[in-house]
Specification:
The protein is an alpha+beta fold. It contains 8 helices and 12 strands. Its cofactor is Mg(2+); Zn(2+).
Length: 272
């Protein structure tokens, strides 16, 4: 945790703890910098009550309070990333990753509540996938991480409903010369449910990213331009176009006019 004092100079504030963030009066400052760790922030499942690290939802809340001030008439761009989802998958800890997704969803919902969808483009996406798979036929409503999804006819041992192609958990579930270890016995030896891993086929210090396409979800103005999977640079160009950054939307009027002309032509063709 950074060791610094709260500093206010020329209406610029630097904060480093949850308490400092919670005590903010954003109406009295013009610039805000929050530094809450020297490296990655802790996983959401590791943030206990009374922790000095604020939740992502709080960071988003105060960021939007700053950005939505009346004097900011030209709009704003808020970029929020939760890299701990990817980190948890790389450690083969699916429950920790799932909890981190919920943590990110809370932050996204906060932004959606505070901003107006009539004039704000909301985008949610992931830049990479993971090698997580869901094998077998687990019982409905069962816990995929902690219950058997079936039994292997080859070695007579159960297998879990979640597994990874690569990662550090390989050595936990496989033994050279003897093969697989009973995964239920492995899980019983780890009391902290968020620290429980799932099997990985290929041993690696950290699990590799997946190669599948990353989906993009959007709502608000120009959201129709984002409705599937895209090259990442296209998303950045779409944001620039929707927000008219550096003249990126100079052709927007022509685009709208061309679309209206096309629709009129189609209508004439159908009804004449």
């Amino acid at each position: 945790m950074p060791n610094h004092d709260r500093v206010l100079v020329d209406n610029t504030l630097n904060v480093g703890t949850q308490n400092e963030l919670a005590s903010l009066d954003t109406s009295k400052i013009d610039y805000l910098l929050g530094l809450f760790d020297y490296d990655h922030l802790p996983f959401s499942s590791d943030i206990a009550d009374g922790s000095v690290t604020p939740a992502l939802v709080r960071m988003v809340h105060y960021s939007l309070e700053m950005l939505q001030k009346k004097e900011h008439t030209n709009g704003f761009l808020l970029f929020v990333e939760d890299g701990n989802i990817q980190r948890a998958h790389a450690q083969n800890k699916p429950r920790k990753a799932f909890e981190q997704v919920r943590h990110y969803a809370n932050a996204f919902n906060m932004a959606h509540m505070m901003a107006n969808e009539q004039n704000t483009l909301f985008i949610s996406m992931n830049d990479v996938g993971s090698t997580l798979t869901l094998p077998g036929y687990p019982a409905r409503s069962s816990d995929l991480v902690d219950t058997s999804a079936g039994t292997s006819a080859a070695d007579g041992l159960p297998y879990l409903g979640v597994s990874y192609a690569t990662g550090p958990a390989h050595s936990t579930y496989y033994r050279t010369g003897t093969g697989r270890v009973d995964p239920m016995e492995v899980l019983q030896g780890v009391s902290n449910m968020h620290e429980r891993t799932c099997p990985a086929m290929v041993p690696m210090v950290e699990g590799a990213d997946g190669g599948e396409d990353a989906a993009v979800y959007a709502s608000g103005p120009w959201a129709f331009m984002l409705s599937g999977g895209y090259e990442q640079h296209f998303v950045a160009h779409t944001i620039a176009f929707a927000s008219c950054m550096d003249g990126a939307c100079d052709g927007a009027a022509t685009l709208v006019l061309s679309t209206a002309t096309l629709l009129a032509a189609v209508g004439a063709r159908l009804f004449v």
